[in-house]
Each structure stands twice: as structure tokens, then as C-alpha cells.
């Protein structure tokens, strides 16, 4: 499972 | 995007603009910690490197540019344009005691051991404590201008609203980012003492001054 998070937050 | 996230971003933007306007209008950066502002510039720089690698939305990209631009403009005003008014004698927090351990922690605890991800993690950890030089400066001088307290209030409110945003996203989207949440909780807790003084003093029309 890829834990990397999409950085849509600021 | 939910209401907490949006108001959080706007609160963050308000804080940044309030600080810039305060310095610009009064032609003075007295009472402002240049060290905290350098840390925030470092936070935005290391966090928004993904501007070079990915596009999320026009909103996302423009806000990132605004935050970075304002952060460097603030640093420029403190250390160049209005340098004569900078109160360096009271801005004595040792930032290396924050930056070095946080750099180490970002290497050890991250989502992915890649340069961009480590720098993003570093920025999240650093942001949580970047206000400490400013709070240290206020505790040293024992007072803060009212406009500075408005800046701090909006800056603290922003991460508190992000906490609400993360609760919302956990329930409705299953979204969960432990690094951001833990750092966000730490960041918000650091403002609690200040929030108390803001509500009990500043909102009642008194200047924020600490007992000697």
C-alpha cells in the first residue's frame, strides 16, 4: 500500500 | 474542499496579509520576530517544491505562489527595507535547536524516503514550531502590539481549522495523514496560551501585556 499522500492541502 | 479547509486557508492568508500591511503601513517591523518569518519562508519553500512536479488546481497553485511570495516579501521588509526598526536584541531564540532535530526527525519519520517527501515532512514539522521565536520574543518583551496579536490569532486559527478539516475528511473521505495531524495538533496547542490571552485581553480592548 502506497502511503504517499496527494498534496492538495496547503 | 470543505468549509473548514477553505476558512483555514483564508485565515492563513489573512494572517500573512495583516503582518505585511502592519509592517508596510507603520514602516516598522518592531515586535516581529525575523527568525519566525525566515522559518515560515523555509516552510513554504520546502513544502511547495511540488509546484515544479505536479499540478493540482489553479486554486492550489495560486495560493502556494501567494504564500511563498508574501513570506519572502516579509523577510525582505524585516531584514532589508525596514531593517533599522527590527528589534534583533529581543529576537534571540536559537533556531538551530529547532531546525536540526526537525531535519533529523523528517529523515526518520516520513511517508516515503524520497527527497521531495522528506522536505515536505520537514516543512510540516517545522511549521508546527516556527512561531516559537515570535512567542519567545513576546515573552521576553512582555508585550505585543494589538495588530501583532491579530496576526497571531489568525495564524493559530488556521491550523485549528485544518484540524476540523481533517476530522471532516476522515469521516467523509476516509482521508488520514498522521504526520500532518500530529504536527497540526502540536502547532495548535502552542497557540492555546496565546488564544486565552487574546480572548481575555485583546478582544476586551486591552493591550496584550504579560505580568512582569
TrEMBL record, chain B:
Keyword DNA repair: no
Residues passing through the membrane, by range: 65-82, 119-139, 151-172, 178-199
GO cellular component, one term: endoplasmic reticulum membrane
Main subcellular location: membrane
Membrane topology value: Multi-pass membrane protein
Pfam families per UniProt: ER_lumen_recept (PF00810)
Lineage: Eukaryota, Metazoa, Chordata, Craniata, Vertebrata
GO molecular-function term, one example from the UniProt record: ER retention sequence binding
Name listed for the protein in its UniProt record: ER lumen protein-retaining receptor
PROSITE patterns, A to Z: ER_LUMEN_RECEPTOR_1 (PS00951), ER_LUMEN_RECEPTOR_2 (PS00952)
Subcellular location: Cytoplasmic vesicle, COPI-coated vesicle membrane; Endoplasmic reticulum membrane; Golgi apparatus membrane
Similarity field: Belongs to the ERD2 family.
The entry's keywords: Cytoplasmic vesicle, Endoplasmic reticulum, ER-Golgi transport, Membrane, Protein transport, Receptor, Transmembrane, Transmembrane helix, Transport
GO biological process, one term: vesicle-mediated transport
InterPro entries: ER_ret_rcpt (IPR000133)
